[in-house]
Design goal:
The chain is an alpha/beta fold. The protein has 2 domains: 183 residues, Vaccinia Virus protein VP39 (Rossmann fold, 3-Layer(aba) Sandwich), CATH 3.40.50.150; 69 residues, rRNA adenine dimethylase, C-terminal domain (Helicase, Ruva Protein, domain 3). Helices cover 39% and strands 20% of the residues. It is built from 12 helices and 9 strands. The chain has a 7-stranded mixed beta sheet with strand order 4-3-2-5-6-9-7, sandwiched between helices. Helix 7 packs antiparallel against helix 9. It is elongated. The mean pLDDT is 96. Bound molecules: S-adenosylmethionine. S-adenosylmethionine binds next to strand 1, helix 2 and strand 3.
Length: 264
Amino acid sequence: MAFKHKKKYGQNFLTNANHILNKIIDVSGVEDTDSIVEIGPGEGALTELLLENSKKVICMEIDTDLERILRKKYDTNPKFTLLMGDVLQQDFQKEVGEKVKVVANIPYYITSPIIHKLIENKNIISEIYIMVQKEVAERICAKKGKERSVLTLSVEYFGDAEYLFTIPKEDFVPVPKIDSAFMSIKLRENNKYEELVDEKTFFKYVKAAFATKRKNILNNLSRLGFTKDELREKLGSIGIDGSRRAESLSIDEYMDLIKVLEAK
Ligand code: SAM
């Protein structure tokens, strides 16, 4: 009996897409010395190639209907491990416990929580290669312009994101409404940004700067308790015009801005 796709689990499976699967393996630089985590293996289209090309593949899948299919295909392969359950509840430190690359066509309804979860485990995750909705990849990877958001900066703070290639919606079953994209996030081992400004302070300022999209940074940052004159003067001292909007600032400008505003 054919598998019935579940919308609630974001199940759009790659199909007849060998050229895409090969491209994923290629751009992810998967090698036989790599251990891989695959989130949401589905029926195992990508799993097959990951098993062929790497040292080990740990799959995390929530849908128990897929367990039988996956076990039947790969359980005899010693490189294969299947962890059933919600990826967001998985204890990566305990269950994975070694340096891995993440390579996956993830469930799109939890894209941000998955990215945050992976970043939280950055001590064991070096590189992330994921398929997401095209617009989301464009937003996360935007180096400048109105597509930038808190999510862009939260990724940028920890690593370097890159838009790799687009996958047309027709390559999935069932066909979704929009195209997808494959992207990477390389997490920094020695994080220059964390050394300059701690995570909590960074997000306090970034979230305030983006609080109201239509407002400029002068207005948005004043919610942190600064007067407008104070902001004008301090921003002016580092060459940032208070009438700019949050999305137009680079991460380095945020670093300067936070340093000058945090200075007593
Ligand atoms: N990798 C397969 C492919 O490319 O054909 C399937 C990708 S499909 C977009 C997303 C997969 O994630 C599905 O297999 C779905 O059941 C699984 N999934 C959904 N929510 C999940 C969760 N919270 N934890 C783990 N897996 C989940």
